[in-house]
């Protein structure tokens, strides 16, 4: 009994798991992963200007999800989850004087004078958003090299550089799995090795070449025969 | 009267009732929750929960507001500053009593 977790801790834990119980956060992560995957692969294999534009739209949507995930989730939950199973304040929008993130929380921490104040939490969140934005902008810049160097090894190099940028940008938050970070070099290497990015098609403004002119016909058609 | 018994006698009766203690514990751990969430977590009937919430509101421990999340109407409950302090005070007293019954010095808790 003495070692069992306190009811406060259990209630808090349940409210945290309630945030994830409907699966919407996981779905949002999945969607953002698909968007980034689409951007990353289409940057390497893009064969038309339309695809390039689409890939940038996908990257913008990915950035939006990363930075505004709590708000997007709240919007979705208000329409899907809350009417069915009830509403509990998201851990992201906690307004109480202290937010407990400590897994060892027990009743003795109720009076913790070192509990971070709301202003401090807001400052940390702002700094995190800024750090993430900077990281993703750097990653976008790193992927631009794909447009200028047309060789299979650039895919691997870009993957490695993006992985390093992501690791450096998110190591303070520990919010990105090592699997994702290592995934970039692996995808880059795979795309390069499997020749998914043929050098000819990897141009920003792709012009369709004229079909070869059959022998015996003039390269440019002459004037139309008069009727 | 010994200090242990005094601590027991001075327990807040509004919070000490099991159903209200459940409600207070949940509201202490989340910033705010709606009626449906509390009902699911506590396992109380609508009428029961409603009457307990009314008592807590009457004591000034819980603030109840009606609002909307999107188009969905919510009855949102949250602890007031008084409610938070009362709950913390209640917990301290219970810890004191628990410390005493474990053979330790409850005053140190």
Summarize the structure.
With 227 residues, chain A is mostly helical.
- Low-pLDDT segments of chain B: none
Structural class of chain A: mainly alpha
- Biggest β-sheet: strands ordered side by side in the sheet of chain B: 1-3-2
Largest beta-sheet characterization of chain A: none
- In whole angstroms, the N-to-C terminal distance of chain A is 104 Å
- Portion in strands of chain B: 15-25%
**Quaternary status of these chains?**
heterodimer
Give the termini distance of chain B in whole angstroms.
20 Å
The CATH architecture category of chain B equals Orthogonal Bundle
**What do the pLDDT scores of chain A average to?**
72
Please describe the topology of this protein.
The complex is a heterodimer of chains A (227) and B (109).
Chain A: H1 7-21, H2 24-45, H3 49-80, H4 82-85, H5 118-143, H6 145-148, H7 152-170, H8 178-193
Helix pairs in contact in A: 2-3, 3-5, 5-7, 7-8
Chain B: H1 3-9, H2 13-16, H3 18-29, E1 33-34, H4 35-42, H5 46-58, E2 62-69, E3 72-79, H6 81-101
Antiparallel strand pairs in B: 1-3, 2-3
Task: Tell me what you see in this structure.
- The complex is a heterodimer of chains A (227) and B (109).
- Chain A has helices at 7-21, 24-45, 49-80, 82-85, 118-143, 145-148, 152-170, 178-193.
- By secondary structure, chain A is mainly α.
- The longest helix of chain A has 32 residues, at 49-80.
- Chain A is elongated and about 85 Å long.
- The termini of chain A are far apart.
- Chain B is α+β, with helices and mostly antiparallel strands.
- Chain B has a single domain (3-102), classed as Winged helix-like DNA-binding domain superfamily/Winged helix DNA-binding domain (Arc Repressor Mutant, subunit A), CATH 1.10.10.
- In chain B, a hairpin with a 2-residue loop joins strand 2 and strand 3 (72-79).
- Chain B has 6 helices and 3 strands; from the N terminus they run H-H-H-E-H-H-E-E-H.
- In chain B, helix 1 (3-9) runs antiparallel to helix 6.
- A 3-stranded antiparallel sheet of chain B has the order 1-3-2.
- Chain B has helices at 3-9, 13-16, 18-29, 35-42, 46-58, 81-101, and strands at 33-34, 62-69, 72-79.
- The chains are: A mainly alpha (227), B alpha+beta (109).
- Chains A and B meet through helix 1, helix 3 and helix 4 of A and helix 3, strand 1, helix 4, strand 3 and helix 6 of B.
